[in-house]
Batch of 2 targets.
Target 1
Amino acid sequence: MNSDKRKKTIVLGVLGVDAHVVGNKIMAHALESEGFKVVNIGTFSSQEDFIRAAIESAADALLVASLCGHGELECRGFREKCIEAGLGNIHMVVGGNLVVGKQKWEEVENCFKEMGFNRVYPPGVSPKKVIEDLKNDLKCSSEPCRGNS
Ligand code: B12
């Protein structure tokens, strides 16, 4: 197996009818700099687009951004669709501006965790923090982020 194959693979994208692309580009660049293989499906991506890309790339995690405020609606049923597609427990992370207006963060986080997301981040989270957590969660053995096998 060549070393590239063993890099952890991340499907990254912006879910739903959402044009906000700047954070997506920054996150893709930050992940690549840390040695991840990034399949960036970009903006206006549906749950099915994420799932298709994850299957095709044998991804280790889905990084889902939602910025325009429709996150709760767009994310509903995502975990169930992953299970149906055979992706079962794939690591799922969500971040961006997930809800509209002021809501208690703990409530927002709980809502998305109940939907099956493993990590939920508030607006403006630094890519560094997301990547640190991702390395721990995917048990990356060394720099750049690679699997143990
Ligand atoms: C630029 C911008 C636009 C541009 C987007 C251009 C483009 N192609 O990118 C345009 C003008 C098109 C636009 C349109 C709209 N926008 Co706008 N937009 C912004 C603005 C000013 C900046 C966004 C940005 O680029 N930020 C810079 C990047 C670096 O930050 P970021 O995207 O937040 O990403 C960071 C993190 O979230 C994180 N991150 C990024 N991706 C991921 C992924 C994961 C998995 C994780 C964990 C973290 C993560 O890392 C990044 C670095 O910290 C914000 C306000 C703001 N100051 O944020 C509003 C804002 C996002 N927009 C908003 C709205 C409402 C809209 C519209 C619905 C307005 C309208 N009524 O038409 C439309 C939606 C159109 C659509 N279909 O998407 C709201 C969203 C409200 C909410 N969610 O509560 C905001 C917050 C403005 C506001 N205060 O009301 N917008």
Note: The domain at 9-137 is CATH 3.40.50.280 (Rossmann fold).
Target 2
Amino acid sequence: MSLLAVRDVSKRFGGVKALAGVTFTIEPGQVLGIIGPNGAGKTTLLNCISGLTRADAGDIRWEEQSISGMPPYRIARLGIGRTFQIVRPFPSMTVRENTAMGALFGRPDGRLQPGAALKEADEVLNLVGLGEKRHHTVLRLTVPDRKRLEVARALAMRPRLLLLDEVMAGLNSVEVEQALTMVRRVQEQGVTIVLIEHVMKVIVGVCSQALVLNFGRTLVEGPPAEVLNDPRVIEAYLGERYARRQKPPPDRSPNGEGNEKT
Ligand SMILES: Nc1ncnc2c1ncn2[C@@H]1O[C@H](COP(=O)(O)OP(=O)(O)OP(=O)(O)O)[C@@H](O)[C@H]1O
Ligand SMILES: [Mg+2]
């Protein structure tokens, strides 16, 4: 049985078709990478799964139970945790307190006592590598640490499925490596992961499956190495990104360069 099944999901914002009939499943233990150009509908897809946005059509099932139209807090309590592309912690609270909020309010097993929530926070902060900074206020954190905090807050809800929206954006290559280690550790805890990333090293480094969205539709889905070498993906996404970064001479074929991006 799939953990999550997204069937023919569509979402329109005014004249913009953000999602135009997306179908895929997430299997337990998988790390699914979602890539695609800006505006392809990636964040909208996560928003539909986590209940923040209601799809216009289609169905989303969690272990065969429809969660379409459920409020976000109920979806979170079923075991679906997420981070946000725009990081928004409580700025005056410490890292530990911020993380404990997840444990206090998002748990499938009901509310924890504050002491237990703080203990839980310490555990997930160690997991994401923020243990030593747990008493810092959020204002003092660097960008990569804020991203780690986002992951910790989501993990404190003990999700079975974790949705990560560009948690590695803006990180340097050393920080990306550290973040990859973090994702692997989370996966080893038995958490299934969906991550949106523009960093191809991440998709190849941790994902068991990759899905490319383009104009709200699935362009290609499959093993990351295959997907990143697919001519359609290179044309719609990688070629353009590569051209912007590297400016290759016009006579050079983009083929074979496609998996070198970022
Ligand atoms: N709340 C909204 N109101 C109006 N339009 C929206 C809203 N949310 C998303 N859109 C539009 O829907 C389309 C898909 O946006 P979405 O944020 O899902 O893309 P994305 O793939 O996450 O892009 P990015 O890589 O830039 O994060 C875009 O054209 C966007 O402008
Ligand atoms: Mg987005």
Note: The CA atoms of residues 10 and 60 lie 11 Å apart.
